[in-house]
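Annex B, item 7. Sequence and C-alpha coordinates for protein A, then protein B.
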Amino acid sequence: MANEVKELAGETAKATEETGRRIEAIQGDTTNAVEVIGQISAVIGRINDITGTIASAVEEKTATTDEIARSVTAAATGANGMGADVTQFAGATDQTQQGALGTIPDRLMSTFRY
Protein backbone atom coordinates (compact mmCIF):
# COMPACT_ATOMS: atom_id res chain seq x y z
CA MET A 1 0.00 0.00 0.00
CA ALA A 2 2.89 2.33 0.65
CA ASN A 3 4.07 1.71 -2.90
CA GLU A 4 0.67 2.64 -4.23
CA VAL A 5 0.66 5.86 -2.21
CA LYS A 6 4.18 6.56 -3.43
CA GLU A 7 3.13 5.96 -7.04
CA LEU A 8 0.04 8.16 -6.62
CA ALA A 9 2.19 10.88 -5.09
CA GLY A 10 4.60 10.63 -8.05
CA GLU A 11 1.74 10.77 -10.55
CA THR A 12 0.26 13.73 -8.68
CA ALA A 13 3.61 15.51 -8.79
CA LYS A 14 3.93 14.82 -12.53
CA ALA A 15 0.34 15.98 -13.14
CA THR A 16 0.98 19.11 -11.09
CA GLU A 17 4.14 19.82 -13.11
CA GLU A 18 2.27 19.27 -16.37
CA THR A 19 -0.56 21.52 -15.20
CA GLY A 20 1.99 24.20 -14.27
CA ARG A 21 3.60 23.99 -17.73
CA ARG A 22 0.20 24.22 -19.40
CA ILE A 23 -0.74 27.23 -17.27
CA GLU A 24 2.56 28.92 -18.21
CA ALA A 25 1.92 28.16 -21.89
CA ILE A 26 -1.60 29.58 -21.63
CA GLN A 27 -0.25 32.69 -19.89
CA GLY A 28 2.35 33.12 -22.65
CA ASP A 29 -0.29 32.68 -25.35
CA THR A 30 -2.55 35.15 -23.54
CA THR A 31 0.28 37.69 -23.34
CA ASN A 32 0.94 37.25 -27.08
CA ALA A 33 -2.77 37.59 -27.85
CA VAL A 34 -2.95 40.83 -25.84
CA GLU A 35 0.07 42.21 -27.74
CA VAL A 36 -1.46 41.26 -31.11
CA ILE A 37 -4.79 42.82 -30.11
CA GLY A 38 -2.89 46.00 -29.20
CA GLN A 39 -1.20 46.02 -32.60
CA ILE A 40 -4.54 45.44 -34.34
CA SER A 41 -6.04 48.33 -32.36
CA ALA A 42 -3.16 50.57 -33.45
CA VAL A 43 -3.72 49.62 -37.10
CA ILE A 44 -7.45 50.30 -36.76
CA GLY A 45 -6.61 53.69 -35.25
CA ARG A 46 -4.38 54.52 -38.20
CA ILE A 47 -7.08 53.38 -40.64
CA ASN A 48 -9.58 55.65 -38.85
CA ASP A 49 -7.15 58.57 -39.15
CA ILE A 50 -6.64 57.89 -42.86
CA THR A 51 -10.39 57.55 -43.40
CA GLY A 52 -10.93 60.89 -41.66
CA THR A 53 -8.28 62.51 -43.84
CA ILE A 54 -9.89 61.09 -46.98
CA ALA A 55 -13.33 62.26 -45.86
CA SER A 56 -11.98 65.78 -45.28
CA ALA A 57 -10.31 65.80 -48.70
CA VAL A 58 -13.53 64.64 -50.38
CA GLU A 59 -15.46 67.35 -48.55
CA GLU A 60 -12.97 70.01 -49.70
CA LYS A 61 -13.11 68.72 -53.29
CA THR A 62 -16.90 68.80 -53.19
CA ALA A 63 -16.88 72.39 -51.93
CA THR A 64 -14.38 73.38 -54.63
CA THR A 65 -16.45 71.65 -57.32
CA ASP A 66 -19.60 73.41 -56.10
CA GLU A 67 -17.80 76.77 -56.20
CA ILE A 68 -16.56 76.07 -59.74
CA ALA A 69 -20.11 75.17 -60.80
CA ARG A 70 -21.43 78.43 -59.34
CA SER A 71 -18.69 80.40 -61.11
CA VAL A 72 -19.39 78.69 -64.44
CA THR A 73 -23.11 79.38 -64.04
CA ALA A 74 -22.40 83.04 -63.25
CA ALA A 75 -20.07 83.29 -66.25
CA ALA A 76 -22.68 81.71 -68.52
CA THR A 77 -25.34 84.09 -67.23
CA GLY A 78 -23.00 87.03 -67.82
CA ALA A 79 -22.19 85.79 -71.32
CA ASN A 80 -25.89 85.49 -72.13
CA GLY A 81 -26.44 89.03 -70.88
CA MET A 82 -23.52 90.28 -72.96
CA GLY A 83 -24.92 88.48 -75.99
CA ALA A 84 -28.24 90.26 -75.53
CA ASP A 85 -26.41 93.59 -75.13
CA VAL A 86 -24.41 92.96 -78.32
CA THR A 87 -27.60 92.07 -80.19
CA GLN A 88 -29.27 95.24 -78.94
CA PHE A 89 -26.18 97.30 -79.84
CA ALA A 90 -26.12 95.76 -83.32
CA GLY A 91 -29.78 96.67 -83.77
CA ALA A 92 -29.13 100.24 -82.66
CA THR A 93 -26.13 100.43 -84.99
CA ASP A 94 -28.27 99.24 -87.90
CA GLN A 95 -30.89 101.86 -87.11
CA THR A 96 -28.26 104.58 -86.87
CA GLN A 97 -26.68 103.47 -90.13
CA GLN A 98 -30.04 103.39 -91.92
CA GLY A 99 -30.92 106.77 -90.49
CA ALA A 100 -27.60 108.20 -91.63
CA LEU A 101 -27.92 106.66 -95.08
CA GLY A 102 -31.46 107.96 -95.36
CA THR A 103 -30.30 111.57 -94.90
CA ILE A 104 -27.44 111.40 -97.42
CA PRO A 105 -29.67 111.70 -100.51
CA ASP A 106 -31.50 114.62 -98.92
CA ARG A 107 -28.22 116.37 -98.23
CA LEU A 108 -26.94 115.75 -101.73
CA MET A 109 -30.14 117.10 -103.21
CA SER A 110 -29.97 120.21 -101.07
CA THR A 111 -26.41 120.81 -102.29
CA PHE A 112 -27.53 120.80 -105.92
CA ARG A 113 -30.60 123.04 -105.51
CA TYR A 114 -28.99 126.45 -105.95
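Protein B:
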Amino acid sequence: CSSTLSGKFDELKRIMDIHNIQVDNPAFVMNQDSAREFLKDMEPKKNYQLFLKATQLDSIQEQLIKCYYEYQDHKQRLIHIEKKLEEDQQNIAELETEYRKILSFVQLKQETNQKKAEYEWSLVNQLEMAITKIEEALSEAMRDREKLDEQANRKTEIENKLKAEMDTCREVIGLNRTEYNQKRITVKRLIRV
Protein backbone atom coordinates (compact mmCIF):
# COMPACT_ATOMS: atom_id res chain seq x y z
CA CYS A 1 0.00 0.00 0.00
CA SER A 2 2.41 2.65 -1.19
CA SER A 3 -0.07 5.05 -2.75
CA THR A 4 -0.29 8.66 -1.58
CA LEU A 5 -3.57 9.36 0.23
CA SER A 6 -3.11 13.08 0.62
CA GLY A 7 -0.52 15.77 0.16
CA LYS A 8 -2.02 18.26 2.61
CA PHE A 9 -0.59 18.54 6.11
CA ASP A 10 -4.01 18.99 7.78
CA GLU A 11 -5.37 15.82 6.21
CA LEU A 12 -2.17 13.91 7.09
CA LYS A 13 -2.41 15.08 10.70
CA ARG A 14 -6.08 14.05 10.82
CA ILE A 15 -5.22 10.54 9.52
CA MET A 16 -2.40 10.22 12.10
CA ASP A 17 -4.76 11.30 14.92
CA ILE A 18 -7.47 8.84 13.83
CA HIS A 19 -5.01 5.87 13.71
CA ASN A 20 -2.98 7.12 16.71
CA ILE A 21 0.27 7.14 14.72
CA GLN A 22 3.07 8.93 16.59
CA VAL A 23 5.92 9.98 14.36
CA ASP A 24 8.19 11.00 17.26
CA ASN A 25 7.66 7.62 19.01
CA PRO A 26 10.54 5.25 18.09
CA ALA A 27 8.41 2.18 18.77
CA PHE A 28 6.24 3.06 15.77
CA VAL A 29 9.10 3.87 13.43
CA MET A 30 11.48 0.93 14.07
CA ASN A 31 11.00 -2.60 12.92
CA GLN A 32 11.63 -5.49 15.33
CA ASP A 33 15.29 -6.11 14.44
CA SER A 34 16.38 -2.50 14.61
CA ALA A 35 14.49 -2.11 17.90
CA ARG A 36 16.45 -5.05 19.45
CA GLU A 37 19.76 -3.54 18.37
CA PHE A 38 18.76 -0.14 19.66
CA LEU A 39 17.72 -1.52 23.06
CA LYS A 40 20.99 -3.50 23.56
CA ASP A 41 23.13 -0.40 23.15
CA MET A 42 21.06 1.83 25.44
CA GLU A 43 21.57 2.39 29.12
CA PRO A 44 18.69 1.77 31.57
CA LYS A 45 17.75 5.44 31.97
CA LYS A 46 17.36 5.84 28.21
CA ASN A 47 15.46 2.52 28.08
CA TYR A 48 13.06 3.85 30.68
CA GLN A 49 12.58 7.07 28.66
CA LEU A 50 11.96 4.97 25.55
CA PHE A 51 9.46 2.83 27.48
CA LEU A 52 7.63 5.97 28.63
CA LYS A 53 7.53 7.29 25.09
CA ALA A 54 6.47 3.97 23.54
CA THR A 55 3.63 3.45 26.02
CA GLN A 56 2.70 7.13 25.79
CA LEU A 57 3.03 7.46 29.56
CA ASP A 58 5.17 10.58 29.13
CA SER A 59 2.44 12.32 27.10
CA ILE A 60 -0.17 11.14 29.63
CA GLN A 61 2.00 12.54 32.42
CA GLU A 62 2.31 15.85 30.55
CA GLN A 63 -1.44 15.91 30.04
CA LEU A 64 -2.02 15.14 33.73
CA ILE A 65 0.31 17.97 34.76
CA LYS A 66 -1.39 20.27 32.29
CA CYS A 67 -4.80 19.18 33.62
CA TYR A 68 -3.62 19.73 37.20
CA TYR A 69 -2.53 23.31 36.41
CA GLU A 70 -5.76 23.89 34.52
CA TYR A 71 -7.67 22.47 37.49
CA GLN A 72 -5.82 24.84 39.86
CA ASP A 73 -6.49 27.74 37.49
CA HIS A 74 -10.17 26.82 37.20
CA LYS A 75 -10.39 26.36 40.97
CA GLN A 76 -9.00 29.88 41.49
CA ARG A 77 -11.37 31.23 38.86
CA LEU A 78 -14.28 29.43 40.53
CA ILE A 79 -13.36 30.94 43.91
CA HIS A 80 -13.13 34.36 42.28
CA ILE A 81 -16.45 33.83 40.46
CA GLU A 82 -18.13 32.63 43.68
CA LYS A 83 -16.89 35.76 45.49
CA LYS A 84 -18.08 37.90 42.59
CA LEU A 85 -21.42 36.04 42.60
CA GLU A 86 -21.79 36.64 46.33
CA GLU A 87 -21.02 40.35 45.85
CA ASP A 88 -23.42 40.50 42.91
CA GLN A 89 -26.16 38.79 44.96
CA GLN A 90 -25.59 41.30 47.75
CA ASN A 91 -25.74 44.14 45.21
CA ILE A 92 -28.92 42.64 43.76
CA ALA A 93 -30.47 42.45 47.24
CA GLU A 94 -29.53 46.10 47.88
CA LEU A 95 -30.87 47.13 44.48
CA GLU A 96 -34.10 45.19 45.09
CA THR A 97 -34.51 46.97 48.44
CA GLU A 98 -33.87 50.31 46.75
CA TYR A 99 -36.26 49.35 43.94
CA ARG A 100 -38.98 48.53 46.49
CA LYS A 101 -38.36 51.89 48.16
CA ILE A 102 -38.62 53.64 44.80
CA LEU A 103 -41.80 51.72 44.00
CA SER A 104 -43.32 52.69 47.36
CA PHE A 105 -42.23 56.29 46.74
CA VAL A 106 -43.77 56.22 43.26
CA GLN A 107 -46.96 54.70 44.69
CA LEU A 108 -47.02 57.33 47.45
CA LYS A 109 -46.49 60.05 44.84
CA GLN A 110 -49.34 58.63 42.74
CA GLU A 111 -51.61 58.52 45.80
CA THR A 112 -50.60 62.09 46.65
CA ASN A 113 -51.36 63.22 43.10
CA GLN A 114 -54.69 61.38 43.23
CA LYS A 115 -55.62 63.01 46.56
CA LYS A 116 -54.51 66.38 45.22
CA ALA A 117 -56.68 65.90 42.13
CA GLU A 118 -59.61 64.82 44.32
CA TYR A 119 -59.13 67.92 46.50
CA GLU A 120 -58.96 70.20 43.46
CA TRP A 121 -62.07 68.56 41.99
CA SER A 122 -63.88 69.04 45.32
CA LEU A 123 -62.93 72.74 45.15
CA VAL A 124 -64.24 72.88 41.58
CA ASN A 125 -67.43 71.13 42.72
CA GLN A 126 -67.88 73.62 45.58
CA LEU A 127 -67.31 76.52 43.18
CA GLU A 128 -69.81 75.04 40.73
CA MET A 129 -72.37 74.68 43.52
CA ALA A 130 -71.73 78.28 44.63
CA ILE A 131 -72.05 79.47 41.01
CA THR A 132 -75.29 77.48 40.65
CA LYS A 133 -76.69 79.12 43.82
CA ILE A 134 -75.61 82.56 42.58
CA GLU A 135 -77.16 81.88 39.16
CA GLU A 136 -80.40 80.73 40.83
CA ALA A 137 -80.42 83.84 43.04
CA LEU A 138 -79.66 86.01 40.00
CA SER A 139 -82.44 84.44 37.96
CA GLU A 140 -84.85 84.87 40.91
CA ALA A 141 -83.76 88.51 41.21
CA MET A 142 -84.29 88.91 37.45
CA ARG A 143 -87.80 87.43 37.79
CA ASP A 144 -88.49 89.76 40.72
CA ARG A 145 -87.19 92.67 38.67
CA GLU A 146 -89.39 91.68 35.74
CA LYS A 147 -92.35 91.49 38.12
CA LEU A 148 -91.44 94.89 39.55
CA ASP A 149 -91.01 96.29 36.04
CA GLU A 150 -94.37 94.78 35.14
CA GLN A 151 -95.94 96.24 38.25
CA ALA A 152 -94.25 99.60 37.55
CA ASN A 153 -95.62 99.48 34.00
CA ARG A 154 -99.09 98.63 35.33
CA LYS A 155 -98.79 101.37 37.91
CA THR A 156 -97.80 103.81 35.18
CA GLU A 157 -100.70 102.58 33.05
CA ILE A 158 -103.08 102.87 36.00
CA GLU A 159 -101.70 106.31 36.85
CA ASN A 160 -102.08 107.37 33.23
CA LYS A 161 -105.58 105.91 33.15
CA LEU A 162 -106.47 107.57 36.44
CA LYS A 163 -104.92 110.82 35.25
CA ALA A 164 -106.94 110.57 32.06
CA GLU A 165 -110.05 109.86 34.13
CA MET A 166 -109.18 112.74 36.44
CA ASP A 167 -108.64 115.00 33.46
CA THR A 168 -111.96 113.86 32.09
CA CYS A 169 -113.56 114.42 35.49
CA ARG A 170 -111.97 117.87 35.72
CA GLU A 171 -113.30 118.72 32.33
CA VAL A 172 -116.70 117.44 33.38
CA ILE A 173 -116.36 119.36 36.64
CA GLY A 174 -115.18 122.40 34.71
CA LEU A 175 -118.16 122.10 32.38
CA ASN A 176 -120.47 121.45 35.26
CA ARG A 177 -119.01 124.39 37.14
CA THR A 178 -119.48 126.61 34.17
CA GLU A 179 -123.00 125.34 33.81
CA TYR A 180 -123.52 125.66 37.55
CA ASN A 181 -122.20 129.19 37.50
CA GLN A 182 -124.46 130.05 34.62
CA LYS A 183 -127.42 128.49 36.37
CA ARG A 184 -126.52 130.27 39.57
CA ILE A 185 -126.29 133.52 37.79
CA THR A 186 -129.56 132.72 36.16
CA VAL A 187 -131.12 131.78 39.51
CA LYS A 188 -129.75 134.97 41.10
CA ARG A 189 -131.24 136.99 38.34
CA LEU A 190 -134.47 135.19 38.73
CA ILE A 191 -134.42 135.79 42.42
CA ARG A 192 -133.77 139.48 41.92
CA VAL A 193 -136.50 139.79 39.59
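Comment on protein B: The two ends are 199 Å apart (CA to CA).
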